[in-house]
Specification:
This protein has 202 residues and is mainly alpha-helical. It has seven helices and no strands. The longest helix has 39 residues. Helices cover 79% and strands 0% of the residues. α1 packs antiparallel against α2 and α4 packs antiparallel against α5. This is Mitochondrial arginine transporter BAC1. Keywords: Membrane, Mitochondrion, Repeat, Transmembrane, Transmembrane helix, Transport. InterPro entries: MCP_dom_sf, MCP_transmembrane, Mitochondrial_Carrier.
């Protein structure tokens, strides 16, 4: 998790900086945020796919390719992180406009509160958007038959026919409950680390 998060936030920050071309803008720029986040998500999918395959107890009992479900993980991470960082950047920007004032101590508390809310909402948006892809990925990776379909849309179509939209969002409640605090903590940690290292988060 530490490696994955470092990679995700590092690639996102560096790509965003490159796309901005040294021009700093306080206002979020979707033409910079979305490709930076999608690229970062795409790269970490190559780390996540084999690790998630091994993590699942059923999968460990089979001989499967390390990247079975790789295209689904790639889609989930690219789309999900584009959504996550867009929500994070916009919530952060508009909350700073409304709330940032007063002493530096107060500003630190405000920054932390903004980090908690923007990170938590970003995490909720991520999983609300891509949970069906995660459901499909789990089915693909745990299928006992190697000849089972690996196309996530084909898998989701089967789930939808059998269980409707609810089936595509299996586990949404616990996922959202976990997503808010986990992503809030990740964002606050990232922002504090950047402050301590003297890196401007723009």
């Amino acid at each position: 998790m530490a490696f994955e998060s470092s990679l995700l936030f590092g690639i996102y920050s560096q790509t965003k900086q490159s796309l901005q071309g040294g021009v700093q803008s306080s206002r979020p720029q979707p033409q910079v945020i979305i490709p930076s986040a999608a690229f970062a998500g795409a790269i970490i999918s190559f780390v996540l796919c084999p690790s998630e395959l091994v993590k699942d107890a059923n999968s460990r009992l089979q001989v499967t390719g390390a990247f079975r479900g790789g295209s689904t993980t790639f889609l989930r991470e690219s789309i999900g992180n584009a959504v996550f960082f867009s929500v994070y950047e916009y919530v952060r920007y508009y909350m700073h406009l409304q709330l940032k004032s007063g002493s530096s101590d107060h500003n630190n508390l405000v920054d932390m509160g903004i980090g908690i809310l923007s990170g938590g909402l970003g995490g909720v948006a991520f999983w609300s958007t891509v949970l069906p892809l995660d459901v499909a990925k789990t089915i693909i990776q745990t299928a006992p038959d190697k000849s089972s379909p690996t196309n996530p849309f084909q898998v989701l179509n089967s789930i939808y026919r059998m269980s409707g939209l609810r089936g595509c969002y299996t586990g949404l409640g616990p996922t959202i409950l976990r997503a808010f605090p986990a992503n809030a903590a990740a964002i606050v940690t990232w922002e504090v680390a950047m402050k301590l290292l003297g890196i401007k988060n723009n």
